Amino acid sequence: MFRSHPEYRNLFIATCLAGVGLSGCGPEQEPLLADESPVTGTQALTEGAPLTTHDASCLQLQDQNTWSTYASYMTPVGPALGLSSIVQDLNRAGPMLTSTTHPPAVGYKGGFRWNDGDMSTTDWIPQALTAGVSGSTNVAIVSWHYAPTTAPEKGVRISVADISDMSLSAVNYRHILLVRPTSSGNFTVVPEHGGGLTWFGNYLYMADTSDGMRVFDLTQIREVDTSTTCDTAIGKVGSVWCAYGYKYVLPQVSAYVQPSTITSPCRTKFSFLGKDTRGTTDVVLSGEYCNNGDTPCPYDGSTPGLGGRLYRWPVDSTTYRLKTVSGVVKPERAYIMNEPNVQGVAPIMTTTSTTSYWLSSTRYSGALFKVSTSASRTAYLSGSGQWARMPEGMHATGSGTNLWTVTEGYNGTTNPATGGRVVFFADQASLD
Predict the structure, then answer these.
(1) What domain range is 188 assigned to?
(2) For 201-355, where are the E strands, in sequence order?
(3) 252-265 average pLDDT score
């Protein structure tokens, strides 16, 4: 992640629900497995060591419960459009990678780069990736954060890409601006880093670095005005609605936030997200980016950068919202990753065990780590020609076949073979 850009605070201020304390609410944590023993407190850590089970009983999220309010705010903007409508109106083409243009990666199978403008822009930086199906279309969704600090804030945009047929010459895609409704018929940008995405049902979850997760409804996309009036405007302007020139906006519907009373070291960061469907309950994975510089993280002790924590948040299989009790969500399990600079997570779908993961890292200018609670990591390093430079978000297909990832770009290069921005997938069995 492009860490020189400020990490913006959520526009909401989380407050405790009346009568709800910091413990004893929400689903109970899953029992520990035989190879797990919880560790608490600041400690020295070892890079590459097995995942360490972490006691996260102090942590909770609260549903801000704006689902119906935010949806009603968007009604005057126009008819709600589903993702299936957007995939019929993709306006950009990203050339497929070839044998000479793809980055080195063990198990590489295919991928694409962005168009020339998106490969070279310094205004927008790719961050997170998730994937799913809309109707009969396989779709990848990638988030980009807005990098300029002197221009008006544009927040986060997503790219919706049709990846149904990777044998074509190009992947078609379109950018959509994320917005937050503010009142009836009006909205504003979402000033976040956009470091994590995951997709359940019609809901797109996005990491809110300081506070939790924001949720967007893929059935509530709206078309807005694209005249020159809107190039520099957001929200309602006269009789039209604007989104800095983007044709479509995806509105936030609610958010899950940490109460302001939860402080360090219990309080965590939501740097990246993932999706795990291997257990009895589907979960949103969330994790912390930590490094040995300005972001050491609280559980590092004498080894800054290694104390990033990975959490499993249960999802209701009927509503696709997080499971809550009295509006509160508790993580079912948590780990200390013992890895630095982690940018993305995906389950290892070639096993049913929920104690093993892929971690994407910008350590060593790019790496993929295979980690578990029972063994030291296996590392695939960009410097050894085993993985792409500067990888970010990841998604593992439910079949266990493919592992997808997006890169943010390395040293400004536009050559996809040597660090330019790409989206690609690798064979999990070859990596595993």
Answers:
(1) 52-431
(2) 203-208, 212-217, 222-223, 234-237, 240-243, 248-257, 272-276, 283-287, 309-314, 328-329, 333-336, 342-347
(3) 97
